[in-house]
Design brief:
2 copies of one chain form a homodimer.
Chain A lengths: L2 H11 L5 E2 H10 L6 H13 L4 E3 L7 E3 L5 E6 L5 E5 L4 E5 L5 E12 L1 H6 L1
Parallel strand pairs in A: 4-7
Antiparallel strand pairs in A: 1-3, 2-3, 4-5, 6-7
Helix pairs in contact in A: 1-3
Chain B binds a DNA duplex (30 and 30 nucleotides) through helix 3.
DNA sequence: TCATTTTTTAGAACCATTCTAAATTTATTT
DNA sequence: AAATAAATTTAGAATGGTTCTAAAAAATGA
């Protein structure tokens, strides 16, 4: 754990939100760090690969990073773009279908409108 | 329907596979079309928006285009990168959860190893 | 036919992310 | 502690997929 990685970890771990690199980077700047963009990416990759945080990949959007390691799905609010945690049944699978294809992981993404945005509209 | 759009449509509609822009573009060239990359993108967007074909977006991968308009999910083979059609329960939703968030669509992606790749390994 | 709108072309621009090479830091061995 | 090796950070260029812009061409309408 280098200083840079620790700082990135602390930022992600300080909020239940799902942060984008952009948001993490601006938090980094607030801490007067001279860290550079590539290091944020490197550190995030390290933290994900070593199980400290979780990467949420959504087509068409930049990656988001989540301190919540428990299995869960997400609802993407089409109004504000926020991700909302949603309980999930199973993410890890282990079965073969009738054609012999093997399944080991399931990723579910919901689209909708979050409660807050509904009130605004 | 312009000539360009018709050609793109024919290419996508000629196979059950899930084509990438790259693949579509090389088919275009085989037809001696002088069509340019941007037009392929424009045409694909048009065809998707008007319900002729379906766009499959997968994080980290380029978009794929599918003539199959019936609701279905996909299995991404982590070995060969191919997408395999998988029957789906429901894609379109219409409900609110306990927190008042509204859900209108569900997207499921499976990861695994297809039958053919298992035999090779 | 003239004017208006739409589409295509060509290539630049964009954005998120990764890569490269050099500099720095950290860890290991002597 | 010094020397060497390994890992990480930095800086900025490069990448890949996709969209944008402006001009040219084609289609549509009056």
């Amino acid at each position: 754990m280098t200083k840079q990685r620790q700082l990135i970890y602390n930022i992600v771990n300080s909020t239940p939100d799902h942060l984008k690199v952009e948001e993490i980077f601006s938090e980094v700047k607030k801490n007067n760090s001279t860290m550079v963009f590539a290091t944020v990416y490197n550190s995030l990759n390290y933290l994900v690969e070593n199980g400290y945080i979780r990467r949420i990949r959504i087509p068409g959007l930049p990656d988001h990073f989540d301190r919540n390691l428990q299995p869960h799905d997400h609802l993407l609010c089409e109004e504000c773009g926020n991700l909302i945690d949603v309980p999930s049944q199973e993410e890890k699978l282990n079965f073969f279908d009738a054609n012999g294809n093997y399944y080991h992981k399931k990723q579910v993404l919901y689209y909708g409108i979050c409660y807050l945005c509904q009130k605004k509209l």
